[in-house]
Amino acid sequence: MTSWKEKLASETPADLAREIDIFETQISLRRQNKIEEKLFAETRLRRGVYGQRYDNGERHDGTATRQIAFPSGDLTKGPLTLWDAPGMQRIKIPFGKVSAKQLEVLAECAEEYSDAILHVTTRQDIQLHFVHIDDTPDMMRRLAAVGVTTREACGNSVRNITACPYAGVCNDESFDVGPYAHAATYFLLGHDDTQDFGRKFKIAFSGCADHPCGLTSFHDIGCIARVRGLNGEKKRGFELYVGGGLGSVPHAAKLLDEFVPEEELLPTMQAVARIFARLGERENRARARLKFVIKKIGIEEFTRLVRAEREKLRSDPRWTAYLSNLDVVAEQPLKPPAPLREVGSPAFEAWRKTNVRPQAQAGYAVATVTLPLGDLTSDQARAVADIARELTGDTLRTTVEQNLAFRWVSEADLPALFQRLQKIGLAEPGASTITDVTSCPGTDTCKLGISSSRGLAGELRRRLQVVQDDMPKAAKALHIKASGCFNACGQHHAADLGFLGVSRNVNGRRVPHFQVVVGGQWTHNA
Predict the structure, then answer these.
(1) In terms of pLDDT, which residue wins out, 256 or 78?
(2) Which residues pair with 409 in a beta bridge?
(3) CA dihedral sign of residues 16, 176, 372, 491
(4) Is the pTM of this model over 0.70?
């Protein structure tokens, strides 16, 4: 029988193929106890392979609750779960851009190696759960063959770079930040200066300062597109922020530079990474993010160090090479523009009101698919890929609100799109409203989870949908986000209503609770 390695040899980029081969060898060595667990944990995390939590060793597979077969015996729950128990695989989707073919391969992998569910995260990634580590090399090869990597999706590295899902089609943006997010992704991926961090490092791009699409205010580096007049010409650049973060000690990012010219974007990021690698905490992981470096030395001193480091950097042609190919992520509409000429059913009009927004390009719209809890099944993912091929082409984007967006929908095709989504159970209205609740995985699968954030989010969603028609407009526009612990993966700080998983002592037992926070700002990049 032909292996995936043999079958996909000609389609897999050489650097990724070698990386996967090395990982496969490391798995074999770990199984022989020839690699220490601490060392192996870091190498698997850098390839997106996480350990996972199990409650009672059971999992509902969509039909019934079944016992999970564990390869390592009876350790089935929490931090003591053995290293090769089925875990979570995080898959990088840079700035959320995913093609129909990539989505199909993700669906196949979810079905064959996981529980047939694709989970969209608040970082525009895709996660699969209950994946056995022995299956990860073949899964990585199948993904690499269609241009998808899991490298540095986790670990002390530059995580998936996020960006506004409307970049390139937004009415308010300064310019399309997509090519810049793409350039930063592949410049920093595997870069020597990003391999020695004490903790993770997150970057986000936004085309404007007013809207929440990029969420640049709580990232290690936040880039907001700006245009300046220079010698009678318009010059592109970025308003650059550094040191943002959520977690147990949230920090708003601080301004590093009001205007970084586009040709200085990558070397400035490289300089920031080098300073973080040099000064970041090593012993105490809770204090190892960039925000603590800046708190300790101050933004003025940090800015001075970054500028001095930039001057010392050896010139790299990659800093500017991408500027000659800013069409690298350009999309071409599949259908000609055409206005919507009919009033649809009440269900269609309700969906259009909350899930459709006009593009900057006349006759086209962006349609958001509301994904309850960020989940879609393998069958739904295949159907979405088919719809894209028929109506929009490769214009899909995942969003930080755990949804999926079709871009370049000819307005005349909106009824057909809605009908197709209805058939696969993905035509719920309410995108970016109070019923569109964001949640991290919480105690469903996360070892760090304290409270069931997904359980809470699902119940809130169900109850709010019953009463949403009776709500005032202002209430409908509120955002709700839930995190299962203080790490804030659900981004609860930036919500109107945020829920944070904590535990309390009740009658001598530790019992999960939620703290409620109110008044977080979602607009102006959070």
Answers:
(1) 256
(2) 365
(3) positive
(4) yes
